[in-house]
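Worked example 3 (structure in, sequence out).
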């Protein structure tokens, strides 16, 4: 489990960026999403909720065309990272 701090927000943002969901941009493009996800994970949200957040945020906030498979893989990566 991770703490909500600048280090983990930045780390999670880099993890999301490294999935190549948004080929252009920078790793800090996902800082706001990372903070939101960490808050939710600290409140014991499950993998399904992480997936819903990822799917909706990447589409509505970032305007990305994300497949179900991509969002599921990103969600699983985030959930695993948080619980390691």
């Amino acid at each position: 489990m991770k703490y909500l701090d600048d280090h983990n927000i930045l780390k999670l943002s880099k993890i999301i960026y490294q999935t190549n969901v948004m080929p252009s941009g920078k790793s800090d493009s996902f800082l706001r999403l990372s903070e939101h996800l960490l808050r939710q994970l600290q409140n014991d949200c499950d993998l399904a909720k992480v997936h819903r957040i990822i799917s909706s945020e990447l589409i509505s906030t970032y305007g990305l065309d994300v497949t179900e498979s991509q969002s599921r893989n990103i969600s699983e990566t985030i959930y695993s990272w948080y619980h390691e």
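Notes: The chain is about 65% helix and 0% strand. Helices lie at 6-17, 31-42, 47-60, 68-83.
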